Amino acid sequence: MSPSLLGAFAIACFLSCATPGVAVGLVISQSLRHSFRASLWGITGLQAVTLLKYGLAGLGLMELLALSPRLFGALRVAGALYLIWVGLRMLLSRGGAQPGMAEGKTEPELEPGAAFWQGVVTQFCNAYGIVFYVSLVPQFLETGKPLWPQIAILLAATIAIDTVVLGIYAGGASTLARCLAREHGARLLNVLSGLAMLGVGLKIAVK
């Protein structure tokens, strides 16, 4: 893959990752409500599905999924309902100090597995991800050259850029959470994180 083509892809990928969407909403919600560490596990779940989607894109299965609206619609609705349920739980939580709570947080530390699977569900049900892999990625594949090495390069670039961007969002949310916890208390953090998670679920549901 030529450096100019990779550079163009990196710019497109950065603009896509930096635009607030469901992945950004997820890591902000996890960081606000629990901790920066929880959001890192969420990012790991997001990137696990990114790896899967690149593999499916290489096999041509992403186009098949995009052409199966009923199948994708069922997966999308199921994932959206799960995330909306999580958001409602956050909104209805009374907050307050609890054992195992990180400093400046409203809830005990989220289990790594739970944070990871929230990331998996969010990314897997993200309709925009289907569009990205079906329409954008093929534009940067050079014909006449081996497919899988090119996919591996684009995958590495995507994960690196996305992880850095989401980490910045999560770090900012964690800092904001500490400030809000000191000034306004746990209830406000519950509302903000719950609204962020509800937004993720609703955005997936209406796409």
Structure description:
With 207 residues, this protein is an all-alpha fold. It has one domain (36-93, 101-206). Helix content is 79%, strand content 0%. The protein has helices at 3-18, 22-33, 36-59, 61-66, 69-92, 112-124, 127-136, 147-183, 186-206. α5 runs antiparallel to α9 (186-206).
Topology:
Layout: H1 3-18, H2 22-33, H3 36-59, H4 61-66, H5 69-92, H6 112-124, H7 127-136, H8 147-183, H9 186-206
Helix pairs in contact: 1-8, 2-3, 2-6, 2-8, 2-9, 3-6, 3-8, 5-6, 5-9
Short description:
79% of the residues lie in helices and 0% in strands. By secondary structure, the protein is mostly helical.
Keywords, please?
207 residues, mainly alpha, 9 helices, 79% helix, 0% strand, globular
Q: Summarize the amount of helix as a percent range.
A: over 70%
Distance between the termini: 33 Å
Low-pLDDT stretches are 96-106
Radius of gyration computed on alpha carbons: 18 Å
User: What order do the helices and strands follow?
Assistant: HHHHHHHHH
Instruction: Based on Cα principal axes, name the global outline.
Output: globular
Structural domains: how many: 1
Residue fraction in strands: under 5%
The averaged pLDDT comes out at 77
**What does the main sheet amount to?**
none
User: What's the count of strands?
Assistant: 0
Count of runs of 4 or more consecutive helical residues: 9
